[in-house]
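Design review, sub-item: ligand-bound model
Attendees: FS, YL, KQ
YL presented the inputs for the zinc ion complex:
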Amino acid sequence: MKSIFTFFLVITLIISSIYNTQAQDLEPRGGEFIFNPDKVPCLTTDQREAIKIETNNNIEALKLQNKLAFNESNSRGGHPLFIWPLKQADGFSYNNTWAISGYVDHNSAYPNQLTDYNCGTRTYDAASGYNHQGVDMYLWPFIWNQMDNGQTEIIAAAPGQIIAKNDGQFDRSCDFNNNIWNAVYIQHNDGSIAWYGHMKNGSVTTKNVGDMVTLGEVLGTVGSSGNSTGPHLHFEIYTDNSYTQLVDPFMGTCNNMNSTSWWETQIPYNYSGINAALTHTAPPVIFPTCPTPETPNTSDSFQVDDTIYFAIYLRDLVAGTNVHLSIIKPDNTFLYDWNFTNQATQSSGYYYWYYTGVYDQEGEWKWEVTYAGETVTHTFNIGALSVDDEVLEPITIFPNPTRHSISIKTTKVLESASVYDISGKLIKSVNFNETSAYNIDISNVSKGLYFLSVVSNKNEQESFKIIKQ
Ligand SMILES: [Zn+2]
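KQ shared the predicted structure:
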């Protein structure tokens, strides 16, 4: 018996060593994601004209009321220097949530006469005579999920005054439909104007026309209102309200509009990086029929005999560049450690590998990805700590969503409760005694999705999703 066992052990070791040398070379599944492949214009000529009239009417009205912040005769300094107009909302933990699908088109001819600021063709035009006049930043990887969760906020790239805004419009556009977008229009100190378009319905700032916004203030979240094929921000800038001079905020050889960058720190033309490294129970369903949200199938909790899918979500992949990948065991040895070479240049792409029957340790594992100079480490658990193992008698938690605290109602005697963020990081832990009320104050916790893990005095455990508002 012992020898048979040893024999199997040896076979297992041989198989696992084959895996260790060969599995790394497995071809990944996945592929490219192209946003707006049909090159749908973000605004029609009529819509653009209507915005110009509306903003100018409001500017006139503010002037008459002595409320216009911009003063032509007393303009302060030069043009603003922008920070990036997108920011991940609190409580979410992707490494990055967007990619760029189109810059400003500097070639006035059309169609298919394309020149971006860097003399490349990462822009678009249309046979109707439209040359793209803004920067399009789309959500990536789970574009509709990210929109529904409000995961990406649109923030003021520069401080200024709201000179117009629009909300209440349908926000799940998949194509050119002549719909109106939800948007905020800001005039800066120097008179220049920024348009932030395609916002999610109901997300637009409650501030009014005439109110001031500070640098980085949240203006709304990314949506797909107006002429749009999916959630993205269209960011369009003019030097003043005469709207005679468009601005491309990116400085480059082929920018024939302005000679300086309008960014505080201009990102590289190919801003290669990792948006997320995630683990899944099944392949992510990433391209459902628009506008159905994706089914990410993500999980951070597995059993040793599960099939685990290891996925990377990259932006601005450049052909021939390397991605370094490691699956690291709880004892910090490698299960696999390998390189993947991008075969094509893509503005976004996802790739995944999957393995079964190779998880020989229980505990906290790491899925570590290095690309374009940055490393993202995603932790996940295999084995004993699974939240599904022991389930308590019915427990009620309320209110959920909550703004201040969570109360737990149960017949059990509870020992402790802990709040984790979606990356598994412990945010708050409370120990209970016989006289404790089962309340957890989370008023200081940022807005977002969390997990509440409750442990009884018999070491039974159960987890709940909670939303902090
Ligand atoms: Zn656009």
